[in-house]
């Protein structure tokens, strides 16, 4: 097991290098000069040249072929990509071009907001999806089943940004129950420990802060949870239906076990593997869906940030955030693979 | 012809039943499925209204502007104060939302078809070839084509560094040599890898000399490595795993983020959005096609056609492709739904259709900014259009899955 984990961790490295290459390639190919974007249209040529020098933007993207032809081997490898990679090895994600603040610093500040939102959404999705899937599978072709299936289809067909807008429309504009954006109301302060505001406010016993944070997070979390909840429902249902046809389920029912025991102890345990896989995939969907959700709800996380950065050609931010998301995605998949072994003793890794 | 009467109390005797094709059977099952029929009707209405609007209902988006009719609430009947009927209301520029929504359907339909077309053709072919060669050995010609391609693509790295396109051809030749060696001289006990490594070193080194000694050194080192790789012709399994690794890299980006990045690179516009959504979808179809081919290619009828000596092309297109169509049809239907959603998301972020082009996502993106004015109709109707069309394709896809493969009916 230990060796398997190690091997999987090592196998993540080439994929990550591939990811950095792709990200880098995209950044380079985007039309427009970041130095001009930074200084504005009316910048003098001198200033642009200075900025390009300072950020290494005048270096060739991958390898300097001219330096090699001139017999300069160290110049050959002195490119934007190699510089970027060398800094990455020191966990330095570079500075934001526009605000000139280290990307890693802003990331540390903003990522908890996205994490909090994603975790709450995942929790909501599981809370709705798994019971709905079980209920629908155990009462197949009943009204509950029909309603659940149609509901989950509507869920996957819903553009989450539209759902978000409609929620704001209903609860903020017309009913005025909930705030339409942000993480906290002005004037409310929560002492930060983990920067997950819900958790921090509970830890510090700040009840009014907790309520305020909850009011802010509930709409974006519901919007973000819709698609994962629908997908988890469908997966749980079809996986449960497969398992419920097995002989041991009939045996368990024939022995006279209560339906709940059969469903939860015998069926669910075995139906859970495909569901776990889907949950792993949803982690990526959540992080990416955050771009849309955060834009609508002005949520100060990394989704809104990276969107603005793409439009403003702020390469280091895009590179840092995409790298982080890909890394999380790969690690979640690793955890999913490992959880198979825990849940199903028949699966071993060596 | 004698007529056969069924007299055993309505039981259908399969031996004498009238012949029905697989597709007719599937169609009957689809018609019998109520939710699938709802989906089909929605899809047909969507397609008809979108194409009908495009061809028969003229709309000049650039000229559509009337501040006097700004943000009118929906009306169903003409009254004194509001003589014109806007059943969906008007937006901030006084444009009739109903008209724009119907016309937006054409854009969504186009995006869906083109994006799925891109993903399906590229991903499908890659998956088809990967699955096929993973289970059936390549013949001489196929191996030759693959190794030429591999030699050329590996050779393009030293060719790029030295700015010498000729190196691409030289290394492609090395790939050809590898296949020829394998065919005619494979029984020789010779250090083949060493031969090819030396050959690669010489090719890279000599070509690089024309530019400079350091270039020659770098190209020689690269040539050595390429020679090692090309020494043995790559089999179908290796080819498949290379393709699938590339697909994994694409999949390791969350799809929206990748689509946004691609559009950021190509610049905004509906056509760019189609390409972005299409590219993001490639791995899905590649994986699906590969696994379907793998499951079919061990069937007796494929082995039989192989043993009769049918050509690989014929086996692939006459025996394998028809048998993997149903999962691909289902996935394509669902893929259309996904493409419409993604296009709307891109449009909403301002990366899709360029205003004033009527596109559902862009209409939402336009209107949500003045949400506080209470103009609910400006965001409700384009959103409903998205939900209904996407839901229609999803319902139809679900129904098609049940109809085309009754075994997995869940």
Set down the secondary structure blueprint.
The complex is a heterodimer of chains A (350) and B (410).
Chain A: H1 2-29, H2 34-39, H3 45-54, H4 65-69, H5 73-76, H6 80-89, H7 103-138, H8 143-157, H9 160-174, H10 197-203, H11 207-244, H12 247-254, H13 259-296, H14 302-311, H15 315-343
Helix pairs in contact in A: 1-15, 7-8, 7-11, 7-13, 8-11, 9-11, 9-13, 10-11, 11-13, 12-13, 13-14, 13-15, 14-15
Chain B: H1 22-32, H2 34-56, H3 97-135, H4 140-162, H5 166-184, H6 192-209, H7 213-230, H8 236-251, H9 255-266, H10 270-296, H11 300-307, H12 312-348, H13 360-367, H14 376-404
Helix pairs in contact in B: 1-14, 2-3, 2-14, 3-8, 3-10, 3-12, 3-14, 4-5, 4-7, 5-6, 5-7, 6-7, 8-10, 9-10, 10-12, 11-12, 12-13, 12-14, 13-14
Counted beta strands of chain A: 0
Number of beta-strand segments of chain B = 0
Q: Biggest interface: chains and residue counts?
A: A-B, 57 and 49 residues
How large a portion of the residues of chain A is in β-strands, by DSSP E? under 5%
Describe the main β-sheet of chain A briefly. Answer: none
Q: Spans of chain B of 5+ residues with little confidence (pLDDT < 50)?
A: none
Mean pLDDT of chain B: 81
**Number of helical elements of chain A:** 15
- State the share of residues found in helices of chain A, binned by percent: over 70%
Strand content of chain B: under 5%
Shape call of chain A? globular
**What is the string of helix and strand elements of chain A?**
HHHHHHHHHHHHHHH
Name its key features:
heterodimer; A: 350 residues; mainly alpha; globular; B: 14 helices; flat
Question: What would you note in describing this structure?
Answer:
- The complex is a heterodimer of chains A (350) and B (410).
- Chain A is an all-alpha fold and 350 residues long.
- Chain A contains 15 helices and no strands.
- Chain A has helices at residues 2-29, 34-39, 45-54, 65-69, 73-76, 80-89, 103-138, 143-157, 160-174, 197-203, 207-244, 247-254, 259-296, 302-311, 315-343.
- In chain A, helix 7 (103-138) runs antiparallel to helix 8 (143-157) and helix 13 packs parallel to helix 14.
- The longest helix of chain A has 38 residues, at 207-244.
- Chain A is globular and about 85 Å long.
- Chain B is mainly alpha-helical.
- Chain B has helices at 22-32, 34-56, 97-135, 140-162, 166-184, 192-209, 213-230, 236-251, 255-266, 270-296, 300-307, 312-348, 360-367, 376-404.
- In chain B, helix 5 (166-184) runs antiparallel to helix 6, helix 5 (166-184) runs parallel beside helix 7 and helix 11 (300-307) packs across helix 12.
- The two termini of chain B are 42 Å apart.
- Chain B contains 14 helices and no strands.
